[in-house]
Write a structure and sequence with these properties.
By secondary structure, the chain is an alpha/beta fold. The chain contains 14 helices and 15 strands. Strands 1, 2, 3, 4, 7, 13, 14 and 15 form an eight-stranded mixed β-sheet that branches. It has a five-stranded mixed β-sheet with strand order 10-9-11-8-12. The termini are far apart.
Length: about 350
């Protein structure tokens, strides 16, 4: 029951005092779930179904990059949200900053529906900390290469295709500091693209400056990438959202192919986490449990082209290699350097203190 200043079931003097001191809104918001999500994870009809089942209200806020997600959660110590979607590599700094809390998996019984590899939480890097679970796997995608089959007749086999001078001004890229440095490391042949050593930064910076010169533009959202790809007649795109973008482009009538590079596709696994400052932990767990049901899980595949954790994806092959994201050596340094590269600075300026 939502309380108002006209509620007759409570002592009016007590209730009037609550109204005066401002506590009533806090009581009224007890059945509101505040969700921070990526686009496509919380479609309107699914939100309505959850609200109808629980008698709650859901407030959705969307983000479009790991950096934006961190800023939104960190700016008020996580007090603005109850549950958020984040990839396993990024989850580590949320745990270290005490922005997310442990998850009670007994309140998420639908984890029993998940594929065996997603039920073995201890084997997934970053999910378990000091014996406690901090995330429930939800969806994943590989960052493959999408190419226009009218302009590129042979499927690209390597990430180095993004640097091919034949595609100067025709390469569409995702605007992410962390991922782009990992991509540069892959193109340079580094065995671990997430850990750049002191002497490896200059070559990585030079590589990304060269990549910027090849770029047609940068995107953050899947729909934005489709619009740019079509309007600007891109030849090649690094697909941060993988098969999701592939499905969107094909649905729009664009003749595109999809390739997993021989170096392996950087791949992210997104999980749902509960903030340490949540005002409704039970409802947050119920949200995670709901999204593992058949209908929401299938919606990820049918509507978004993403994989879920309850069924094998239809578009990957056994030979395709995934390079799962890991925490990077210095996310702040990557962000600072990428901002300079993106703005057009030369290598000496990018690497300056």
């Amino acid at each position: 029951m939502k309380l108002t200043c006209a509620t007759p079931l409570l002592n009016w003097r007590w209730l009037h005092l609550l109204c005066l001191v401002g506590w009533l809104p806090l009581l009224a918001s007890a059945d509101t779930l505040r969700v921070l999500s990526w686009p496509g994870y919380a479609d309107a009809d699914l939100v309505k179904a959850f609200e109808a089942r629980t008698g709650s209200q859901v407030s959705i806020n969307f983000i479009d990059s790991d950096e934006a997600l961190w800023e939104r959660v960190n700016q008020n110590q996580g007090q603005d949200f109850d549950v958020l979607a984040v990839n396993t590599a990024e989850l580590q700094r949320y745990i270290q900053a005490a922005l997310v809390g442990p998850i009670d998996t007994t309140q998420v019984p639908n984890t029993a529906r998940q594929l065996p590899r997603f039920r073995q939480l201890g084997s997934i890097s970053g999910l378990v900390h000091q014996g406690r679970v901090y995330g429930v796997p939800y969806t994943y995608a590989e960052m493959g290469l999408i190419y226009d089959r009218q302009q590129i007749k042979v499927s690209p086999s390597s990430v180095t295709a993004l640097w091919d001078p034949r595609y100067r001004g025709k390469v569409l890229l995702y605007n992410s500091s962390s991922h782009n440095f990992s991509l540069a490391a892959q193109s340079l042949g580094h065995s671990n693209p997430f850990q750049l050593g002191t002497g490896q930064w200059p070559a990585a910076v030079d590589r990304l400056i060269a990549l910027r010169r090849n770029a047609l533009g940068f995107y953050t959202q899947p729909d934005e990438s489709v619009q740019l790809f079509r309007q600007k007649r891109a030849a090649l795109m690094l697909a941060n959202y993988g098969s999701q973008q592939l499905q969107l482009l094909r649905s729009a009538g664009v003749d595109v192919g999809y390739a997993i590079p021989k170096e392996g596709a950087l791949a992210w696994l997104d999980i749902w986490a509960v903030t340490r400052q949540t005002k409704n932990a039970a409802l947050a767990h119920a949200w995670i449990n709901f999204l593992l049901e058949p209908a929401p899980s299938q919606a990820l595949v049918a509507r978004q082209g993403l994989a879920n954790t309850v069924a094998e994806p239809p578009y990957l092959h056994p030979k395709d290699r995934m390079v799962w994201l890991e925490p990077v050596e210095n996310s702040l340094r990557r962000q600072q350097l990428w901002e300079r590269i993106y703005s057009g600075d030369r290598a000496a300026r990018v690497l300056a203190p």
